[in-house]
Input
Amino acid sequence: MDEERIQITAEESGERIDALLARSFPALSRSLIQKCMEAGAVTLNGKTVKKNARGSAGDVLLFSFPDTEELPIEAQELPLDVVYEDGDLIVVNKARGMVVHPAPGHPDGTLVNALLFHCGDSLSGIGGARRPGIVHRIDKDTSGLLVAAKNDFTHRALSAQLSDHSLFREYEALACGSFREDAGTVDRPVGRHPVDRKRMAVDVKNGKAAVTHWQVLARCRGYTRLRCRLETGRTHQIRVHMASIGHPLLGDGLYGAKCPDKGLEGQCLHAQRLQLTHPRTGALMQFEAPLPAYFIGVLEKLVLL
Output
C-alpha cells in the first residue's frame, strides 16, 4: 500500500475524518474510505481511528491507499470515442446515455466495461472493483469529456488536481428561461435531498461547498444557451444550481419537470472542455469535444446556434 500524509488545518478542525479524506481524494467513495478506516489503514497521530472520528488543527493523518482489487467486471467491446491516450491516462468523449460505471440497474454496458476492453489490465484500482480508473464522473445523460487513469500514480495525481480545482472543466448547457445578467456565479452547498435519495438539493446546513460560474452565450424565446465552469464537482451540481435559481436545464425531468422537454430524453448538458496537468510530464493539456448532434439540433430549433 502507498501512504499519504495529511496535516489537518484550522479550517478542517472538527470535521469528520472520512469526510475530509473523501474531499481530499474525490476518486474514492466515502464508503470505501470508511472500509479502509475499519481495516486500520487510516491513523491519526499514529493511532487507528473509527469512521466517525474527528480531527483537530495540527493533527497528522496517514492514509494507506487500498491495493488494486481484482476487477470482476466484464470487458465489453462498446463504441468508445478516444480523444487522447498514452501510458498514464485516457481522455474519452462519453456518449449521452452511457452510464460511467456499473451500479444497481446498470450492471454492464457502461464506460468502465468499454475501458476494460480497450485498455485491458491498464487501469488504476484506486476507485475499487466497480470504478477502475475512474477519476471523476458525469451523469448518464450528460455527454462529453472524461479522463480515466491507467495507474495508481496518475489516479492520485489527478484526484489531487480535482481537489485543488486545477483540473478545469467547462460545460455547455441549455437552460429554461431568460437571464437578466450576462454572467454570474452560483455559490450554494449541495447535498443529498432529505426525502428523495435519488436527488441532490441545495442544502445550506449539511451540503458540501459547491460553486458554478455561468456565462450567457445566446438568448431566444425563453431559452438560454450557457457556458458553465465548475469550481467544485458535486453530484448533479450544474443541474441543481441552475434549477435553484429558477432556470432548470432543458430536458431535465429530475430537476425541471415544469420546463418543456422538446421531446428530449435527458438534460441538454455537454462537458465540452477539459484542462489538466499531465501527472508524469508536467505538461498542461487541453481538450475540447464538439457539441453532439442532438444538442446542435435543439440549438437550431431554438435559433440559439
